[in-house]
Give the backbone structure.
Amino acid sequence: MKGMTVIVKKTTQLIAGIVFLYGIYIILHGHLTPGGGFAGGVILAGSFILLILAFGSDFMHLLKEEKGSTIYENLAILAFLLLALTGLLAGGKIFFANWLPHGTPGELVSAGFLPLYNIFVGIEVAASILTIFLALVIFKEEILK
Amino acid sequence: MELAISVIVGFMILGALYAIHARDILSAVIAGGIVGYSLVICFLLLKAPDLAIVQIVVETITLIIMVAVVLDSSRVEAYGKFDSRAWVTAGTAVLILLIFFWFLRLASAHLAPFGENTMRMADAYVNGAVDRTGSVNLVTGVIFDFRGYDTLGEATVLVTAVLGVLTILRLRGKKV
């Protein structure tokens, strides 16, 4: 697909990195401030979509990106499931048991498993929405060919 | 606050009605955006910033994708003929709507007043979540600890949706 004008490209260069960092902040601080894996993941996907829409991408590159995002998505949900499964093996023998030490509430490293769950759900949501977007773009390219 | 929410919900209903009746599909998509962004303000007024963040980003991305789809295809809606089958469909819809509202009216007599939280479970969550999960953000404590199964289901739904999209939009390997 083709890119957009110089104005859009320059604005995207300035903004996309900040959007990406904001998404990471929302995910990592999910157990302290409003937000979490779902919100941060969508923001991460938004920064990628912004880059692809503004700069454009050739067909083979899009196919490679779709393959990568699909792999990331499935690995992230597998890691989420395995983390939940560790609760069954250790600690209280309960699925989803939060057996890591909780620490002091309010610090960045606290609340046991919750930040890890947030990170993996964030990766999963970002990769899912990016995959749907890439599938639509690739479909359009294939139709036009 | 209830007045403000009522005004915003009125805007949402107007936007939805316009989206149904607009001749141009692009303006219908934009009018559908009114509903989503008004919902963001409703969430903020009802003190749900977690939902507001998700809603505003998802609304923006879906609006971009919908506008791109409309610009790439047709902006004119294809109108079908209003024959006897359409009358049957419309009649069934109105009948189901009436039955739904009748049961809603029966059930609303037993509901708690608006905004008043009287559930025992919710009280236990609000008072004990910080001690039990160690998470200051109550919502994260509930959705990843107390309600972990629900979150796993949500994530699985997203993966299944992506699988469906990839299956439908696959031209390679398909004999056209």
Summary: Chain B has two domains: 1-79, 117-176.
